[in-house]
Amino acid sequence: MARRRAGSSDLQIELTEKLIVWAFTGVKVFAFAFAVSLAYILYGVYGGHLRGAIEPRIMSNLQLMGQIMALSGGMATICLVVVTMEEVAFAVVAGLLGLAMIFGFPLLVAGQVDVQGETAAELIMRWASVTGKFIVLVVAFRLLMEIINYFRDAPQRQARLTRIESLTGDGQKTKTGSRPWWRLQHCWETPYCHDAIKEVCPAFKARKNCWRIHQGCNCDSGMIEALIRSGAASRGKGVTAEKKGTQEEYMRADLEGGIKIGQGERTRECRDCPIFLEHQRQKFQMVNPIVIIAAIVGLLAAYPIMKQIYQLGIQGMSKLASRLAFGASVSVSDWIGRLDTQTVWVFFYIIVGLLVMSYVLKFVEWAILIRKL
Question: Looking at the whole model, is its pTM more than 0.85?
Answer without folding.
Answer: no
